[in-house]
Amino acid sequence: MVRETRLSVDSLIEPYFVVPGKKERREIASMPGQFQLSVDELLRDCEKTVELGLPAVLLFGIPESKDALGTAGYAAEGIVPVATRALKKEFPELVVIADVCLCEYTDHGHCGVVEDGELRNDPSLGLLAKEALVYAEAGVDLVAPSAMADGQVLAIREALDAAGFVDLPIMSYAAKFASSFYGPFRDAADSTPAFGDRLGYQMDPANVREALREVEIDLEEGADIVMVKPALAFLDVLSQVSEMSPVPVAAYNVSGEYSMVKAAGQLGWLDEERVAAEMLLSIKRAGADLIITYFARSAAAAIARGDL
Ligand code: PBG
């Protein structure tokens, strides 16, 4: 009765990794309980998502083949557009969010165009805008640019507006840190950079003022939801962003945060469910309106049982 913070199922977003083919259900080695799914299997899984009352899914595509410009990321028949059309047909009320980035589609694993061994910001913007537009045309409800390219929110907003998608909102990965907690995700999406790191475009984990500035810039460019990522090592950033943001704030409880708990759970060192619940509560308490988490499903089940 006197509990100050409550988790509700409608603030949770479940991420999915979608692969080409049929009947594909490959468990991700470093993320027990998470799978790369083909579209038919994704549809099966999402029955459960909807049944549990989860409102939204976040899609990541893993293409058949990758190239220097990430062309599979903005192909009209690419993996995310195909998955989106199938999902919207089967579950019209499920909110489909598409991650907009090129690192899953480039052979070098960086988030945009690379020239002379360096990511080039401005040449990347057009491709990211094109990717967002292709996803809009496929019917996504929300686009979520995660490349940390300067000006990406504006470039995407302009491209969407010009094509008539004036009502399609943007959830911006505004304060995204260059974090080692993404390790398992890069296994899952096969997107580990072939050379170098992402420190040139993602933020230094030491910086909170810079994070607030990144959020302000994305708001000016038209972000409708701003995100802090990762969540747990950045709860102070999340708290400050939630105080200043005029729009809803999302937090990404990333792959490494999930894998640590699963690993310790498997070893019998931690009570997985309770630790996950505590983590999600801490993210909510710090001010997140929305939480993207690989625990979405287990948390929704716990909420339904009255355990969370
Ligand atoms: C794409 C992207 C990444 C994640 C979300 N979108 C990887 C990265 O930036 O390297 C990480 C999510 C996770 O770790 O769960 N840029």
Verbal overview:
This protein has a single domain (9-305), classed as TIM Barrel, CATH 3.20.20.70. The chain has ten helices and twelve strands. It has helices spanning 39-51, 79-90, 121-138, 152-162, 183-189, 209-221, 235-244, 255-266, 272-285, 296-305, and strands at residues 12-18, 25-27, 35-37, 56-61, 95-100, 113-115, 118-120, 142-145, 171-176, 225-229, 249-253, 290-293. Strands 1, 2, 3, 4, 5, 8, 9, 10, 11 and 12 form a ten-stranded mixed β-sheet that branches. The protein has a two-stranded antiparallel sheet with strand order 6-7. The longest helix is centred in the middle third of the chain and has 18 residues, at 121-138. It starts with 11 loop residues before the first strand and ends with a helix. Bound molecules: ligand PBG. Ligand PBG binds next to α5.
Outline of this structure?
This protein has 308 residues and is of the alpha/beta class. The chain is built from ten helices and twelve strands.
Order of helices and strands: EEEHEHEEEHEHEHHEHEHHEH
Distance from first to last alpha carbon: 13 Å
- State the domain count: 1
Q: Main sheet?
A: 10 strands, mixed
For this structure, what is the CATH homologous superfamily? Aldolase class I
CA gyration radius, whole angstroms: 18 Å
- Overall pLDDT level: 96
In terms of structural class, how would the helical and strand content be classed? alpha/beta
Tell me which CATH architecture applies here.
Alpha-Beta Barrel
The total strand number stands at: 12
Bound molecules: ligand PBG
Helix content: 25-40%
Tell me the CATH topology. Answer: TIM Barrel
Shape: globular
User: Which oligomeric state applies?
Assistant: single chain
Assign the CATH class.
Answer: Alpha Beta
- Give the number of helices: 10
Strand content: 15-25%
Low-confidence stretches: none
